[in-house]
Design goal:
By secondary structure, the protein is an alpha/beta fold. The chain has eleven helices and 17 strands. The protein folds into two domains: 118 residues, Alpha-Beta Complex (Aspartate Aminotransferase, domain 1), CATH 3.90.1150; 251 residues, Type I PLP-dependent aspartate aminotransferase-like (Major domain) (Aspartate Aminotransferase, domain 2, 3-Layer(aba) Sandwich), CATH 3.40.640. Bound molecules: pyridoxal-5'-phosphate. The site of pyridoxal-5'-phosphate has 15 residues, from helix 4.
């Protein structure tokens, strides 16, 4: 169906940070399937392990124990502040699970039944992005994604990101007549909404307020999680532990997988509450296990920190050379945004011009060009990417 405004390019082969189209033209990939291909394309280790898994077992039902799933849950909980994991297949699904958990939490912990016709509330940020299923798109604080699909799911209110006073005011309004708020669902760094890093002070205040009211604090780490920020998880950048977080994208390195991880104290799901046919199958979990193992084995977190600094310096140079076109750059690790000035062409125009220079980039809103390359990218690729981007900018100017 006609759901994407696609570029007229068909990609059929990839290796590392490179992809080739049907004409044999080679592109430097700073999109990585939008923050998915953690280890790059056609990674040798992932290929070998997954080929072996295909020869053993691809899928069995969650009616039975799945050792690969138990191992992946153990790997996530051993390296995070969480204790239990539910697996699904995508970011939107992981957020759906989180939203259901929030509603259960509202009833069990805060005594909000919703039976009086007043649903428990979930507070999310303006300019956020949480996915395209009906509840996840309602959680997404961007009205343009709601248009044409009303009525939206009940029980969502929005606050301006990183604005402590506005959040406090919204919370006070919602709680004026007693407990109403089930959860706050928020990205540690807003990806799609313009590469906006979370502010430590704001997030620390969120944590305090959620603790005071026993409101669930859930982080959507679908884009920033799994090493992309230079730390394994985005929450480590903020010095705040959420009660739960959601993952997808980079966890499978290109194999679809999503996850909701929670602390023991908010592990409210019981058999029958939630489920997924494909979620956590042996093949997808083997991919997740391999990605996490390779991040550790190749010391990729340190690598991402270095490459993030390198890219930051290269983009800062670009901003200095083109002050009329570029307003700045921001991000963490290998999730970075180049901010276009009001006089510059739009981000989609810049991305199109970069494609003509054989460089893949993705917009984050109308005025930010996003870099989300494989975590294995090297300095020479980053230099080449910024050279090609500069040529693309000059071609538009
Ligand atoms: N949450 C965040 C922060 C995202 O960036 C995305 C996708 O871009 C999603 C959720 C939705 O993930 P999916 O497309 O896998 O459903």
């Amino acid at each position: 169906m006609d759901t994407y405004a696609r570029f007229p390019v068909a990609l059929t082969r990839g290796k590392g940070v490179w992809v080739w189209d049907t004409n044999g033209d080679r592109y430097l990939d700073c999109v990585a399937g939008i923050a998915v291909c953690t280890l790059g394309h056609s990674d040798r280790r992932l290929r070998k392990v997954l080929s072996r898994q295909l020869g053993r077992l691809q899928h069995v039902s969650n009616l039975y124990r799945i050792p690969e799933q138990e191992q992946l849950a153990a790997a996530i909980t051993a390296h995070s502040c969480f204790d239990r994991v539910f697996f699904c297949n995508s970011g939107a699904e992981a957020n759906e699970a989180a939203i259901k958990l929030a509603r259960k939490h509202a009833g069990l912990v805060r005594g909000i039944s919703g039976a009086d016709g007043r649903p428990p509330l979930i507070l999310t940020a303006q300019a956020s992005f949480h996915g395209r299923t009906l509840a996840a798109v309602t959680a997404t604080g961007q009205p343009r994604y709601h248009q044409g699909f009303e009525p939206m799911v009940q029980g969502f209110r929005y606050f301006p990101y990183n604005d402590t006073a506005a959040f406090e005011a919204l919370l006070a309004e919602c709680e004026a007549e007693g407990p109403r708020v089930a959860a706050v669902l928020v990205e540690p760094l807003q990806g799609e909404g313009g590469v906006n890093p979370g502010d430590r002070g704001f997030f620390q205040r969120l944590r305090e307020l959620c603790d005071q009211h026993r409101i669930l604090l859930i982080f959507d780490e679908v884009q920033i999680g799994v090493g992309r920020s230079g730390r394994l998880w985005g929450y480590e950048q903020l010095g705040v532990e959420p009660d739960a977080f959601t993952l997808a994208k980079g966890l499978g390195g290109g194999i679809p997988i999503g996850a909701l991880a929670v602390k023991q104290a908010v592990d409210h799901f019981r058999p029958g509450d939630h489920a997924s046919t494909f979620g956590g199958n042996p093949f997808a979990c083997r991919a997740g296990l391999t990605v996490l193992a390779e991040i550790e084995r190749r010391d990729l977190l340190v690598h991402v920190q270095r490459m993030g600094e390198e890219l930051e310096a290269l983009l800062a140079g670009l901003v200095t050379r083109h002050p009329l076109l570029l307003a700045g750059q921001r991000g963490w690790g290998l999730l970075r945004g180049l901010v276009l000035s009001a006089e510059a062409p739009s981000a989609p125009e810049v991305v199109k011009a970069a494609l003509a220079e054989r460089l893949l980039l993705v917009p984050a809103g109308a005025s930010v060009v996003r870099f989300v390359p494989p975590l294995t990218i090297k300095p020479k690729h980053l230099r080449l990417a910024v050279e090609r981007l500069e040529r693309a900018l000059l071609s538009l100017a």
